Each structure stands twice: as structure tokens, then as C-alpha cells.
Amino acid sequence: MTEPTPVPDAAGGGSRTATVPPEPALPAPASKQASNGHRQNGAPRTEATPEPGADTHVNGTPAAVPTAVTRADVRSGDDVEAGIVALWRSYGESRDQSQRDRLVLHYAPLVKYVAGRVGTGLPAHVDVADLIQSGIFGLVDAIEKFEPERGLKFETYAMQRIRGAILDDLRSQDWVPRSVRSRARDVERALERLGAKLQRTPTDRELAAELKIGLAELRELYGQLQLTSVVALDELIAPNKGGSSLAESLPDDAAEDPVASLVDQDSRRQLADAIAQLAERDRVVVTLYYFENLTLAEIGKVLGVTESRVCQLHTRAVLRLRTKLNEQSEA
User: Fold this and answer.
1) Exposure of 127 by Cβ count < 10 A (0-12 exposed, 13-18 middle, 19+ buried)?
2) Where do the record's region annotations for Disordered lie (predicted)?
3) 50-61 as b/e, with b when 16 or more CB fall inside 10 Å?
4) pLDDT tens digits, residue range 211-232?
5) How many folded domains does the chain comprise?
6) What is the rounded radius of gyration, in angstroms, for the C-alpha atoms of the chain?
């Protein structure tokens, strides 16, 4: 059997009655009567107060707004902020390393954010993890030198210190002087301006006039800028086409050429076939002369003929080999 439950009217005046079926798995919530605040069945009745402007009815039943959860969230955020302020105050008094480490852990996301921003315009071989490592030192330095009593915001101060630490570490690893880097940027900007103005690639004389330097000084500057165009061997040259590295594209002069090796093997096979088709005496002359390194006189002693005769046999054998090799190549 169901119990009529008074429900506030949508217009705010009076009440209407809705039939709400009981839920067997959960205890039935008590509701406040519209006319008075008397108890029913010995239990006090409560009602969640809807926020202004909120929808007070969902499928014919009043919808309660969880204002307590929202207030708890606000209080938890305030508690965290108060805890950080207390931690700063305690660290300023004691300078304890464990408290400093807690501050480092709390502000660590700032390092990742700044490292990502700095690493956007850097070459591909620069690892963001190295930038984060450098930024951690900047964060520690910012925490040790920050003075909360001045009323400044720590995040703004720390981001500058983190960025400075990352840039200092990058400059320490750079083998090119800063003056050369600055001149390189000037040349790049001048090339962009002249290219946009002339709608073509400017000449060296035009570039020197734009930079207000002489042509000889510009060429000397080109020699200095060659230091800035060094490319890392492990940098990808075609990241979208198989991912081969630049090191894999460099030729190895000591390596054996596979094409030349195959051509040499085929030439040896054809020569062996041609020698096998010679007459026996011609084949002996060729074998002793080219493979055994005997002279014509020594071959004549082996065959029992004169040196001039061996010369004739050698010439005839070479002509026949050349003819047979030409026939094989044409076939």
C-alpha cells in the first residue's frame, strides 16, 4: 500500500499530493509535511533545500541539490592552500630539507609545463626529460631563495627560475659561442625580410647591404655559421618514410660493393667456361702464364718448344678467349 506524500507545488504556492511507491531495498526517506513539523512513526522528518533556480522536480519527485558536497570540496581546497602556507612558514623558520622536498613535490608539475614550452622550438635530438632534470634544479633554487613575506606569488617567480636553469644548461652544452648564434639569427631574419620583399632568393651582395656589412665580411660570417649547421647522426631524416636515420645513409668506403661482387663472380664463371673450351695446349699456356705466373721461357721448357712458339700459342689462346667471351655477352 502506498502513502500520499505532500509535494511542493511547482509554482511555489500550496502543495500537491504524489503517490510514491516504497523502495524495499532502502529505508523510505522521511519528508516534511506541508502544514506542520510533527513527527510520524516517532522519526523526525527532514527535507533537502533546493538551490535557487534549480529544478525541484524530476519525474514528479523533488530533486535535492548536494550542497554539502560542494562545500566540502571548497573546504578541502582551502585546507590544501592553508597547508602550503603553513609549510612555507615552517620551512622559512627551520630550513629543513624534508620540508623543502615536500615543496618540490608539490610544485613539480611547473617544471614539466615549463620544459614542454621551452622544448617546442628545439631540435628533435633534445630530450624533454633532460630539460625536466635541469628544471628541477631551478625549482630547488627558487624554493631556497623565495621570500614569502614579500607577498609575491611563488609560481610566477619559480617559472622564471626554472626556465633560466633550462636555458643555462642548454647553453653550457652548446659548442657555438653566443655571439655566433646571435649573428646567425640576424642573417636568418635578413633573409626572411629580403625574400618577402624581393619575392626571390637574395644575392650575397643584397644580403650584405641589408646587414650593413661588406661582402668579404659576409663571407667570413658564412664560415663562422658553418659551426651552427652540425646535424646529429641519430636525427631522423625521413620520420614518415620508414624512420631511417642519417647514420644509416652514410656510405661505408670499406664495405664490399654487392653489385661489383656479383659482376666479378659472373665474369670469373664466364672466363672459366671459355678456358675449358680451348684446345689442350692453349689451355696449358693460359693456366701456366696467368695462374702459375710462369714466364714464356719457363712455359717453353715445360712444353718442350721455343719461347717464340709459346708466344704464338699465348696470342692464339687470348684471341680465342676474347671471341668466346664476346659470344657469351651477346647471348
Assistant:
1) exposed
2) 1-63
3) beeeeebeeeee
4) 888 888 888 888 878 766 666 5
5) 2
6) 46
Gap between the Cα atoms of 222 and 263, Å rounded: 45
Q: What distance in Å separates the CA atoms of residue 227 and residue 177, rounded to the nearest whole number? A: 10
Q: What is the DSSP string of 101-165?
A: HHHHHHTHHHHHHHHHHHGGGS-TTS-HHHHHHHHHHHHHHHHHH--GGG---HHHHHHHHHHHH
Written as nine digits, the cell of 169 is 644548461
Whether 263 and 186 map to the same domain: the answer is yes
- Give the other-Cβ count within 10 Å of 111's Cβ: 24
Query: What are 19's three cell numbers?
Result: 503517490
Neighbour tally for 122: CB within 10 Å:
13
User: With contact defined as beta carbons under 8 Å apart, do 286 and 272 qualify?
Assistant: no
Under DSSP, is residue 47 helix (H, G, I), strand (E, B) or coil? coil
Other CB atoms within a 10 A radius of the CB of residue 135 amount to 27
Domain presence at residue 108: yes
Question: One-letter amino acid identity for 97?
Answer: Q
pLDDT score, position 246 = 62
Q: Tell me, what's the pLDDT at 2?
A: 44
The domain of 289 spans 178-241+258-330
What is the spatial distance between Cα 293 and Cα 43, in angstroms, rounded to a whole number?
A: 122
- Evaluate whether residue 32 is within a structural domain: no
Contact between 140 and 104 under an 8 Å Cβ cutoff? The reply is yes
| pLDDT value at residue 162 | 93
Confidence of residue 163 (pLDDT cuts 50, 70, 90): very high
Yes or no: say if 237 and 246 are a contact pair by the CB < 8 Å rule.
Answer: yes
Average pLDDT over residues 197-212: 89
Contact at 8 Å (CB) between 119 and 126? yes
Amino acid type, 303: L
Residue of 62, 27, 23, 55 whose CA lies nearest to 41: 27
Average pLDDT of the residues of the chain = 75
